[in-house]
Backbone:
């Protein structure tokens, strides 16, 4: 099964050092939450390997040119990868700095992590998108994965979703591909969460640092997920950030 854990936010300029710290924490937590999804490389420090941190995994950078290179996930290596991305033709600090990493583990498992962050574009959202491919019978901690993205990247909105949900939102509810939406689990920043009505019956959980998680439906209840998105949109909780954007969250 393939699921996508997503978080989006508006302009927030950040240094390479800050971004490297966010990336490292993300990769470390992925290794902890999905121990079967990565393959050990032995390339990390001894303490990191003992702790089961992300350095024990083999991550590969997929460059825009298609070139694939191995990457250690310590902060220094991640910072170097971010600086290399900034040296690419056409890079703009306004747009943000992007990385795409992949990792494979036991049969049926594959993770792809794509991030665009640190930019201050008035029209282009910053993002963290984690694709998790897993065996159909595997238990994947959706709530914990979205909580991780919410706490480490401080997005404006996000969710755990899949291709069937995204297709249904577009085909059945006229959501544009770039329009805010959530999945069977959603995240809303504090400003968006404040617009929720008492009639929104999804279970709510506050996230450290602000915002709420919404446990909306089972992953195969596509109709309920679409209905919830429509209700959230009608309440204003899924309105796009005003363009040109001047803040990271609603």
Residues:
């Amino acid at each position: 099964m393939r699921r996508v854990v997503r978080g989006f936010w508006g302009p927030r300029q950040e240094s390479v050092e800050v971004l490297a710290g966010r990336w490292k924490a993300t990769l470390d937590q992925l290794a902890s939450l999905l121990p079967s999804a990565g393959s050990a490389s032995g390339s990390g420090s001894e303490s990191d390997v003992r702790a089961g941190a992300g350095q024990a995994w083999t991550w590969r950078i997929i460059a825009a040119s298609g070139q694939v290179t191995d990457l250690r996930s310590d902060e220094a290596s991640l910072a170097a990868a971010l600086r290399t991305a900034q040296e690419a033709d056409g890079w703009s600090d306004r747009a943000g700095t992007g990385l795409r990493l992949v990792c494979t583990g036991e049969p049926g498992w594959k993770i792809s992590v794509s991030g665009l962050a640190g930019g201050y574009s008035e029209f282009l959202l910053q993002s963290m998108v984690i694709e998790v491919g897993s065996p159909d019978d595997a238990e994947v901690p959706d709530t914990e994965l979205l909580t991780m993205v919410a706490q480490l990247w401080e997005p404006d909105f996000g969710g755990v979703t899949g291709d069937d949900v995204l297709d249904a939102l577009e085909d059945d509810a006229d959501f544009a591909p770039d329009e805010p939406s959530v999945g069977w689990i959603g995240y809303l920043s504090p400003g968006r969460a404040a617009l929720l009505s008492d009639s929104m019956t999804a279970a709510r959980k506050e996230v450290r640092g602000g915002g709420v998680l919404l446990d909306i439906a089972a992953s195969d209840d596509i109709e309920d997920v679409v209905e919830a998105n429509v209700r959230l949109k009608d309440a204003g909780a899924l309105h796009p950030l005003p363009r040109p954007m001047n803040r990271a969250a609603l």
Remarks:
- The mean pLDDT is 91.
- Residues 206 and 212 are 4 Å apart (CA to CA).
